[in-house]
């Protein structure tokens, strides 16, 4: 198999891994003040939302809320104001707003590896 065909196959594989987001993801949804919503997250009985483009987590001091965005399609990660103990986080994987930090998706890892491999070939 030549390099071009291998590259096309690799890109197709990465796109297949990422395709699920086009159909929507499932996110935990709870409001600030709910004891299950805190960073010591307990998903038992927490409602979920579907058809989201990304999951969200907002933190203001000890207050945490988790939810669903149907419009935001930007980066995975957090914007933090450590002085004020505030954070706004986004992620694009089913129920990824369950942790105190966000996880990196398999598609992101595969994309980085593919890009690294292709750049070495040039």
UniProtKB/TrEMBL annotation:
InterPro entries: Sleep_regulator. Residues 1-24 form the signal peptide. It comes from the Eukaryota. Keywords: Membrane, Signal, Transmembrane, Transmembrane helix. The keyword Transmembrane helix applies. The keyword Transmembrane helix applies. The chain crosses the membrane at residues 99-119. PANTHER family: ATILLA, ISOFORM B-RELATED-RELATED. This is CD59 glycoprotein-like.
């Amino acid at each position: 198999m030549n390099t071009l065909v291998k590259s096309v196959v690799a890109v197709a594989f990465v796109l297949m891994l990422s395709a699920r987001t086009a159909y929507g993801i499932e996110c935990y949804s709870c409001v600030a003040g709910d004891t299950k919503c805190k960073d010591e997250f307990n998903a038992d009985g927490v409602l979920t939302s579907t058809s989201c483009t990304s999951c969200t987590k907002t933190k203001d001091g000890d207050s945490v809320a988790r939810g669903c965005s149907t419009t935001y399609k930007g980066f995975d990660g957090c914007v933090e104001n450590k002085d004020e103990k505030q954070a706004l986080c986004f992620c694009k994987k089913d129920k990824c707003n369950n942790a105190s930090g966000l996880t990196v998706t398999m598609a992101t890892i595969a994309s980085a590896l593919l890009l690294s491999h292709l750049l070495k070939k040039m």
